[in-house]
Amino acid sequence: MTSTEAAATALQDHAVLWSMGEIRATDVVTAACDALVAGLDSPALRILAACTRAEADYDVPDLLPPALDELGLTFHPAGSVAGQEAAARALAARMLAGELTPRELAFRIHQRFGQLWPSDSPTWTTTTTSSSTATEHWHRSMQRSRPKLFALHSTLAFQPNPRIYRPEADRWTCGFRLKDLRFP
Length: 184
Hints:
This protein is mainly α. 60% of the residues lie in helices and 0% in strands.
């Protein structure tokens, strides 16, 4: 991959992570500066790279879509399923590059998507009239997402530290009665 392709990929990743609320607008401006240095050039990219830290929060929402469009890159709007999937890919790439630990990756994906992956999330429309239909739809989507969740858990699962983790602490304490307590 050439330096301009790498810069375009980095700019695209920064854009999707910003649109999903994962990074700040100033990080997008820094990625735009890096893209200019690497050889990418467009009028909107130059304007985006010229933003100061104070202007970034206000100007990036208006300047980023045209800059990506001029470079032939895709802008994913906030909340779109394609944007969520692209954000998960960008986070995974950051983990492979050593910028995130597997634990941080799992935390951030869970923070963004909850228990469901974007393609499996239930769509609640106004046509859903009965609660039983909505409940059935939710159960079907959970059945589809469960294998993905187990695969992610088995990939990122860690063995507990035996000095800190005590298995007996996980036992259920329903059999405990307060009157069995003896005080000296």
